[in-house]
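DATA CLASS: polypeptide
GOAL: derive structure tokens

***
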Amino acid sequence: MNKSIIFDMDGVLIDARDWHYEALNQALQVFGLEISYEEHLEKFNGLSTRQKLEIISKNNLLPVELHQVISNTKQDRTLRIAAEKCFPVAQHLILFDLLRYKGYKIGVYTNSIRQSAEIMLEYAGLLNKIDVLITNQDVQAPKPNPEGYLLACNRLQVLPEDTFVVEDGEYGILAAESAGCKVIRVGSPRDVSISLIAKFVPEILL
């Protein structure tokens, strides 16, 4: 039986939730708009930029024609922040090396676009340690839809019921559970460690 663990990225492997908030607000402020931090946590955290802009357009009459300009600006600001703040975390590197040594396939599924995901995972020293990367550009319906997790399982050649997903946000947890995966919930990247994963898959320590 193939064994796998799929990780969300933002808020799980990389502490980028606030980076996305800051970057989107920098892009929106040009047009006189801003998301409060409470709104970010309650409504937007874990959604793709496209999904966030669709919600803002419905609520604030932001012209849809501006979405691409705002998205491009937000992407630029996100990568600038990541270049300053994203770096390898020892406990993540050790965990991934142990999982690979124990024969686990490793996937990452993120609501970020591929460019952001690859750059951040490279900064974090994890890009060359994963077997599959799924981004919001690989699916028709991003989280909370289960499509991305089902696609990751398919590419890893594992069954969802044999797969653990490490997630932090409600949208991601809903997506993983809807796909039929088992969920390991974390509060931040600091929680992601050998000791946590071993509580659910103790054989990694055998």
